[in-house]
Each structure stands twice: as structure tokens, then as C-alpha cells.
Amino acid sequence: MKAATGELNLTVITLIAIGAVIAFFWFMWGPIKNGINNQWNDINTNDRNTMSSEGGSVGP
Hints:
60 residues, mainly alpha
């Protein structure tokens, strides 16, 4: 009976840990995504070799 209780405790701890990781990313995904998009837009804005809306190269 002791072994079964120990396994149940490990299962509960595992489920709580998985839930904590999911909750962390659930709340933090918005700021993470915004940061990635801002960096991506900065790279595209500052890159002279990106394509313009007319299909030509922006750079010299």
C-alpha cells in the first residue's frame, strides 16, 4: 500500500508541474510573441536587401 501511495504522490506532483508549465506559457505567450514580432519587424525595417512592395530590391 505504501508503494501505491508513493506512486500516486509522484503522479500528482507531475500533473501539478505540467499544469504550472502550461499556465506559465499561457500567460506569457502574448508578450513573448510581441517581442518576437517586434524584433522581426526591426530586422526587416533595417535590412536594405529586403523586397519592397513593388517587388524590387530596396537596397542599392
